[in-house]
Amino acid sequence: MKAAQARKRKVLIGLNGLSLFLFFTILYNILTNGSLLMIDRWISAEVPDIQSPALTELVVFITNINGMLGSAIFSILLVSFLIYKKYYADLKFYLFAFLGASVLFVVIKLLVERARPALKIINEQGFSFPSGHSTMSMVIALSLYFIFADSISSRAGRIVLLVVALLWPILIAFTRVYLNVHWLSDTLAGFSLGIFWVTLVLLFYPYWSHKGKIEFRS
Q1: How far apart are CA 216 and CA 147, in angstroms?
Q2: How far apart are CA 100 and CA 112, in angstroms?
Q3: Cα–Cα distance for residue pair 17/103, rounded to 1 Å
Q4: How confident is the prediction for the chain on average, in pLDDT?
Q5: Position 153 confidence tier, pLDDT thresholds 50, 70, 90
Q6: Rg value, the chain, Cα
Q7: What is the dihedral of CA 94, 96, 97, 102, to 10 degrees?
Q8: 9 falls in which pLDDT band (50, 70, 90)?
């Protein structure tokens, strides 16, 4: 059992380091006007070709689900459920992951001060890097996976849960790029930041709780 836990901890450390490396690689490209910005500008210029009134209306609806209000409502419902079930260790894990990531991406936005694409089709205020929607959708998705995967006995079931969970951040990232309120690199940085933060919380999580409910099964 200890050997399995040690392997899983190594996986978390690897994901944590890789996501942090990816985040700083993207950040370096932005600060130095690197080649990634050429891809950003090309995608932003091509996006209007696939936009349509009907699709835009649907995309706005989806992206708002993971907005500040939508995320807050979802979090209140999840927190209420965890309190009702007396999953206090999971509750502490989720609150730290969610609130910590919320502060982290806002601070980075204020430090980098990257402007949003000029072709945005909805009114979106604030700076662009990293995408808060992408960051928080990844944080929520991974948090849900680690909270509820423990209750799924089969490995196939846990894989399905993980795939379904990750499809949500990908969909949210698409909406942000489609609406031209974020560059592609903003969403990729949001993904990497979300993965970094959740894995960091998980690495230190056992030291915060006597319950230790979350297990990283193989």
Answers
A1: 10
A2: 18
A3: 20
A4: 89
A5: confident
A6: 18
A7: 120
A8: confident
The closest of 108, 113, 65 to 197, measured between CA atoms, is 108
pLDDT digits (tens, 9 = 90+) for 94-115: 999 999 999 999 999 999 999 9
- C-alpha 93/C-alpha 212 separation (Å) is 10
Q: Model pTM greater than 0.70?
A: yes
Whats the size of the chain, residue-wise? 218
Task: Give the span between the Cα atoms of 154 and 25, in whole angstroms.
Answer: 36
Residue 175's closest CA among 130, 125, 134? 134
How far apart, in whole angstroms, are the C-alpha atoms of residue 174 and residue 131? 11
Which two structure tokens, joined as six digits, stand for 58? 């649907």
Structure token pair of residue 84: 């009702």
Which amino acid is residue 161, in one-letter code? Answer: L
